Please model this.
Amino acid sequence: MAEVNNSASGGGNDESAAGGDPIRAYLSQIGRVALLTREGEIELAHRRDLALTPARVLALLSSEGAELLVHELARAREREPEHRWRRMDRAVARIDRCRARMQAREVELTAAVVELRGALEQLPLSFDQWTTLVAGYVALLREGTSADEPRCLELELALGQPRSRWAELFRTIAAGEREARRACGELVVANLRLVVAVARKYSHQSLPLLDLVQEGNLGLMRAAEKYDPCRGFRFSTYAIWWIRQAITRSLADQGRTIRLPVHVVETLHKLARLRREGIATVGREPSVEELAQQLALPLERVRFLLTLGPEPLSLETPIGEDGELSDLLEDESAADPVAGIRDRELASSLRQAMGTLSEREARVLELRFGLEESDEDQTLEVVGREFSLTRERIRQIEAKALQKLRKPSARGALADFL
Model:
């Protein structure tokens, strides 16, 4: 930890030496920490386990626990074929090796567990009740017992022990927690370079490298809590899965402008993989029907997922040196200059053609077809009231006027628009 602290305190010098580049400064800082050997990883994992779970470890080390384990294995062996127990035999052998390495800690551990068992035997409570009370008492001790004196007295009466007795025991537990955190911290700091190596493989995607490293570090911390050296593999082999899982989950949650559920993102990745495989094998992308068959999904579902694949683009995306994407998009609210010129030419040609009609015929057509500014078609009855004529007479005038406009002499000006 001293080496880690020295590395952390020198972060400012690293950053200035790296020209203000946070990535180079971070890599320089974590590069100061020496890598752990396999023996070092095992030692840190054992320190963590001894601090957090002494009762569980003692059960494996004690003769009573060993006899119970052998008895249960013998009973199970009678019910299962021999070949299924080869893996169990290897696991038992690893346990024996771990137990042999921990013999030096057995005496100290036994004394601590005996003390804890003695305290538990004096309690007139069930295990669940004791756990609940202990959790509340630990919280009070961490916050300061004087802040809630009535609650402390209540817990003392329920536990049947004076506060000083439980305070001493809980201080021992708290010290074990601190020791476990220190061991996990050393295990994490020594493997930060592994996170960077994994994060670089995802740096071409939407999140920056430092964000990927941060998410990978969270996975590394989780791996340090779960690592079991008795399984026989190195910590890096175990931790890389947690790191990848944390990074890919963060990409699914934060990597898109519009967030999609994680299961949808995973399905999109499967679709992309199938399309790449199709191009590599048959030289073309699979059809939607083929994708639906390979994924065992409804056809409409696959079509919908394919519409979610492309990432949305910002209108402020740079185009060239000075342009933006918004400069290339059509403004649908703006008037079309070509359409405006065409409308004016049509109006001029229509007025020219209407000049061949009588005043009444032109007026009837204007009202019937909405050629005025109101642009509303009028019924035969409305037009007839304006001229004091019947509907039938207005219809006849309209038919006669249209017949005149169909003549080549009148249609010439409108020929380009027909």
The radius of gyration is 41 Å. The longest helix spans residues 163-189.
